[in-house]
Amino acid sequence: MARTKESIVNASCLPMSIIIVGVGPAEFDAMIELDGDEVRISSRGRYAERDIVQFVPFRDYIDRTGNHILSMARLAKDVLAEIPDQFLSYMRTRGIKPSPAPPPYTPPGQPLQTQI
Questions:
Q1: How far apart are CA 61 and CA 12, in angstroms?
Q2: Which Pfam family is one of those matched by this entry (predicted)?
Q3: How far apart are alpha carbons 37 and 29 in whole angstroms?
Q4: Residue pLDDT, tens place only, 67-111
């Protein structure tokens, strides 16, 4: 666990996210700790620069009524829920701003529309 924490702390300055899906009946206390939603993880006195881990236990998404499509959609939604904030956190800490939006597409043969 110590080496895993150290790897996450080291990776927290990189443009990446780590997704962990817990499978089976085990207790996932260690994975919840790695998730870092409650307390930012640290290793050797260094704290993770940002939260890059998302953990979800698969068993929380098993639909007992048999609606597996809905279950998997909920799982996908929750697994990916933190990724946008993690990405924006990386960009903000480095002062990277989005480029201006490109002009709207005009199909060939259509006159360009200009605003006055």
A1: 28
A2: Copine
A3: 13
A4: 788 888 889 999 999 899 999 999 999 999 999 999 888 888 776
Whole domain around residue 12: which residue ranges?
2-93
Q: Scanning the structure block, which residue is given the tokens 């953990």? A: 55
Per the DSSP assignment, residues forming a β-bridge with 42 are 47
Q: Is residue 81 part of a domain?
A: yes
Q: Would 105 be classed as within a structural domain?
A: no
Is the pTM here over 0.85, yes or no? Answer: no
14-38 pLDDT, tens digit each: 999 999 999 988 889 888 888 877 8
Q: How confident is the model at residue 40 (pLDDT cuts 50, 70, 90)?
A: confident
State the total domains in the chain: 1
* 77 lies in some domain: yes
Q: Is residue 107 part of a domain?
A: no
- Cα distances from 36 to residues 30, 42, 56, 65, in angstroms, run 10, 9, 12, 32
